[in-house]
Design a protein that fits this description.
The protein is an alpha/beta fold and 471 residues long. The protein has three domains: 132 residues, Rossmann fold (3-Layer(aba) Sandwich), CATH 3.40.50; 167 residues, 3-Layer(aba) Sandwich (Rossmann fold), CATH 3.40.50.261; 157 residues, Succinyl-CoA synthetase domains (Rossmann fold). It is built from 17 helices and 19 strands. A hairpin with a 2-residue loop joins strand 3 and strand 4. Helix 3 runs parallel beside helix 4 and helix 11 runs parallel beside helix 17.
């Protein structure tokens, strides 16, 4: 698997000078990573020029001036895929990514093509030198500590999100993870991304091959899976039991309904399996299942940016009384507790409240009266530290504010509270407000201080509940 993510030599079938072609975008992504040891295969052109770089083109892989190739990317019309794949196997390329949508044109010489695929499989197994990802894959993303990140995506990336202190690796059966979902991390990076593998229709490389590799990858702290089917259930189950003890595994499994299963057959030509069985297995294996990509990334940033809560007891500080009421309802829904303050905490907290509001001093805490009396900086710091001064009482600290200038405070205060109580996670929830202001707050909190933010209180509480399964 190493040569997929850290290739020293790359061959591209289907590179193009036309900016509208996928082969052009793939080549530009590769050239952002390196222009050294990049070789192009083209039956008609002698060279291809992209980004002021001219690369020589060779008619076949056997014409190359080198004998050892780490990675070949095939992005050709479907009718040429099998020829290119067989060449790569004979040449003993270490890794091949099939970005073409299929191995052959269905309905044209089906019996011949199926027999040929079987022969190619025999050759692949006999030579035992090449691994193949795809077809219907757009390949990989690999972040490097030196900032020279690699992607083979057919979507062009001017920049990559890169690594954070802790990072997620993703194995998926969709190109979304190497297009829109990865691009989304470029604006405000909520999650550090180490590696992505879009494995497509799994002609050869499967989720289990990637799990074995990511288990020992030093830059992977958690693993996310989007799977439409599971190739080898027994192997997968044994792997997850072992790996989940060291690294959290999150699973988004599609095909829960009969219509969903039919859509999977259309998408990746595979069978979905019974979701109820997979869900039951996930509990035995220590995997946490999620409902969609939003929940997948939300839970990922929660467990990677802050410590996982040791228990279900929350301290909630809200700018609004609505936040306190909603947090009570949602805590009960998701099996979380809002323990009362101790008598000493209550008496201390009253120091920052007007006397008329003393009856409202409890957990969850409405702090608007305090903000008006002593200002937001003192309120948020004093309330947070007072909640956490009895270390064994609460397992997480939740702030709920709205995007208005009157509720803004020095965000370094949260960083200091984090430092004073390193085992207690801090979460920030937003109740709407000025969108530009909220984007600015998110950028500071997520990228500078690694404090996760949430625009849905319900999703935040749900993810806290799911994170507890990993504690």
């Amino acid at each position: 698997m190493e040569s997929f993510f850290y290739p020293h030599s790359i061959v591209i079938y289907g590179a193009s000078e036309n900016f509208q072609k996928s082969g052009n975008r793939v080549l530009r992504n590769i050239l952002n990573y390196t222009s050294k040891n990049v070789y192009l295969i083209h039956p008609r052109k002698e060279s291809i020029k992209v980004n002021e770089i001219t690369l020589k083109a060779y008619k076949t892989i056997f014409d190359l001036p080198v004998k050892n190739i780490d990675l070949a990317i095939i992005i050709l019309p479907v009718q040429y895929v099998l020829d290119a794949l067989e060449e790569c196997i004979i040449f003993q390329v270490k890794s091949v990514i099939l970005e073409s949508g299929a191995l052959y044109l269905k309905g044209e010489n089906d019996e011949y093509n199926v027999n040929r695929i079987n022969q190619i499989r025999v050759k692949l197994n006999k030579l035992n030198q090449t691994r193949v990802m795809g077809p219907n894959s757009i390949g990989i993303y690999s972040a490097n500590k030196n900032g020279m990140d690699l992607t083979t995506s057919l979507i062009y990336f001017e920049k990559m999100p890169g690594l954070k202190k802790k990072n997620l690796s993703i194995v998926s059966q969709t190109g979304l993870t190497l297009s829109g979902l990865l691009l989304g991390q470029n604006y405000i990076q909520e999650v550090g991304i180490s590696k992505i593998a879009a494995i497509g229709n799994k002609f050869d490389v499967t989720e289990s091959d990637l799990l074995d590799y990511l288990e020992s990858d030093p830059n992977t702290n958690a693993i996310a899976l989007y799977l439409e089917d599971i190739k080898d259930g027994k192997r997968f189950m044994n792997q997850c039991k072992r790996i989940s003890k060291k690294k959290p595994i999150l699973l988004l499994k599609s095909g829960k309904t009969e219509k969903g299963k039919k859509a999977i057959i259309s998408h990746t030509k595979s069978m979905a399996g019974d979701y109820k069985i997979i869900e039951a297995m996930s509990k035995q294996m220590g995997i946490v299942t999620v409902e969609d990509f939003n929940e997948l990334f939300t839970l990922s940033k929660m467990i990677l940016s802050q410590p996982i809560p040791k228990g279900n007891r929350l301290a909630v500080i809200s700018i609004s009384g609505a936040g306190t009421v909603l947090s009570c309802d949602l805590a009960e829904k998701y099996g979380l507790e809002l323990p009362p303050m101790s008598k000493a905490q209550n008496e201390k907290m009253r120091e920052i409240y007007p006397k008329w509001a003393w009856e409202d001093v409890y957990n969850p805490l409405d702090i608007w009266a305090s903000v008006e009396l002593v200002g937001p900086n003192k309120t948020y710091e004093f309330a947070g530290e007072t909640f956490l001064e009895e270390e064994s009482q609460f397992d997480a600290l939740v702030y709920l504010i709205t995007g208005i200038k009157e509720s803004e405070f020095d965000w370094d205060i949260l960083h200091q509270i984090n430092g004073n109580h390193p085992d207690i996670p801090i979460y920030m929830g937003f109740f709407g407000g000025d969108k530009k202001l909220l984007l600015n707050w998110r950028e500071i909190l997520e990228e500078k201080y690694d404090i996760p933010t949430f625009t849905s209180l319900s999703l935040m509480m749900k993810c806290i509940s799911k994170a507890l399964r990993l504690s």
